[in-house]
Amino acid sequence: MSRSAAVKMSGLLMRQLRGEFSFSPRGGLVQVCHWSSMASGTTKEEEKTHQPPHTLVGETGDKAKTKAIVSYWGVDPPKISNQDGTPWRWNCFRPWETYSADTSIDVKKHHLPTNFMDKFAYWTVQTLKYPTYLFFQRRHMCHAMLLETVAAVPGMVGGMLLHCKSLRRFEQSGGWIKALLEEAENERMHLMTFIELSNPKWYERALVFAVQGVFFNAYFLAYLASPKLAHRIVGYLEEEAVNSYTEFLIDIEKGEFENLPAPAIAIDYWRLPADSTLKDVVTVIRADEAHHRDLNHFASDIQCQGHELKEFAAPIGYH
Ligand SMILES: [Fe+2]
Ligand SMILES: [Fe+2]
What we know:
mainly alpha, two-stranded antiparallel sheet, 59% helix, globular, binds fe (ii) ion, respiratory chain, EC 1.10.3.11
């Protein structure tokens, strides 16, 4: 096939793949346009993330060159609109990835540690918890932000290792790869939300850097050695995340922490009303943590009872 024919074909394919419709955050079908000038009133962060991907840095005025690049690759990124015709503001997530959190989930559920492995997992988390509480005390925003940088690691590590196992053994995973990657993405969105409300200092960034280096490797080795222990540890970590968000909510209710307006990213991601506040955001994040808690304890239970994860369908599609 000639090069020009291949380019034409890839263009046609991309036009098929990119979809001719999309969803509004409230669930309805909406129109899809193509990149055009963005509506005024976007934040600095939104402007940064809404550069048309085919525009090269430093060449924004060179329309001919930009067009040539689009033509060459046959990719014309779609612009997704809300139901009212305003442009979808985010490149980091799309309307069909948004959801309403299940805030009716039991936030007090606790897995009683009965055997040695459970007790080891429980006390590992308790041992890690106390220095963290001493360090942050009631600086909830900072605590939440740094907690999320850690919480987003296990899902990615577990998902990656299950992915490799699936390839090695030529077998499916029962949806667990997807479930764990979904969890990692969800945790990262918690972080993206808190970063809109807080500006970490240099030593906090340095702490994240160091903690990630240690935690990623420790969790990787733990998951290789015993996935059921690794999932149990995460189950208890998530229980503590639920508890710390409950304390955050109590302090907001008492007026000890300002109930700021919810950031735009949170309103769109969790389909919250436009006048939502930090309290609403922390409430939906706590519900997410409770879901992660249940998912990880479930994954550990499956393996503790002598089964493989793939034998039981993973709870995907929570979002
Ligand atoms: Fe989280
Ligand atoms: Fe979580």
